[in-house]
# Entry
Amino acid sequence: MEKKARSHLARKYRQLVTLEKTFLGYPCDAEFDYAPLYKFLKFPLNNVGDPYEDSTYRIQTKEFEREVLKFFAKLLHIRKNDYWGYITNGGTEGNQYGLYAARETLPKAPVFFSDHTHYSVKKNVHILRMNQCIVRSQPNGEMDYEDFAKKIRGRKTAIVVANIGTTMTGAVDDIQRITEILEKHKVRYYIHADAALYGMVLPFCSDVKFDFRTKINSIAISGHKFLGSPVPCGILLARKESIKCLQNYIEYIGAHDTTLSGSRDAFTPLVLWYRLKTKGLHGFRKQVKYSLSLADYLVSELEKIGWPNVGKSYITVWFERPSQKIVNKWELAANKDVAHVICLPHESKKELHKFVMELHEEVKSAREPSDEL
Ligand SMILES: *Cc1c(COP(=O)(O)O)cnc(C)c1O
# Structure
């Protein structure tokens, strides 16, 4: 490689090392070491086709993919013979698969979701040419069930995308209540859960049940969020009976073409598998506990300096949007006048304290002009 290109690459590396130190707003853990997997990058890996069938393309990691799926099936309480799934490119693809299966199950049904739902749902509804019906949210970002009930009345079929952790405020829709409303109105339904971030958080908390013990049909989880991965990825898990309509055998690859992508990433199954094996259930439980304690700490620090509109849901802490300078520096995700921090294992109280002290400077300098009056 020529010198110029080499230094280009070296500069990028140094920049990323610096940026990682102030990475608070996005829900992606950044503390991991996958060095032992490095040697796998020399193979032209491809998990083409269904993860449960060994296709004619044999340089693959499907047995690892299946083990990852098995872990999530257990975590989300679905029995061995009742589920199907695959490792996706991320939460968006998982949501698309859930909606696709829903549309094939209930072809004319409109898709109900709250106005706090992630933009990927709207996009997928558009791509799939489905009809949408947007439900109002409560101030904390959770679905407004009265509005939902009002909009469900008189319908025969409905598809619902439930948020298991909204992007901005980490709100969790109550699947139990949604189901009761659907059944009360005798609606045939399909429920997809968008659990991009909280799919790996709530199973370790005692109070919220969104797993397959409820009547959800499918779940999408992002692999690069709470789990932590150098490459975006995700997990899609569905009841077998809910995706029966999407089986399609392809002679050329010698497998059923049940996935959205044809050729599929076979490296992230190794990443997720490695993460699960090295952390274990115990490790994740500890990480969730730690993240929850960081969120408590951040709320109390923000309250100490009197920062306005502070709220919290599990590991998501939101507050009034600070200046653009702070938003950029700390990579806060901000929407209108709200910004948030997702408390994740790679963060520390020390880092959050430093962040709050910078906010404090803003509070003080904002006060100064009015002191002069
Ligand atoms: C991040 C996110 C998604 C999309 O996931 P990607 O992995 O970025 O495609 C969907 N829903 C919610 C709530 C998210 O936070």
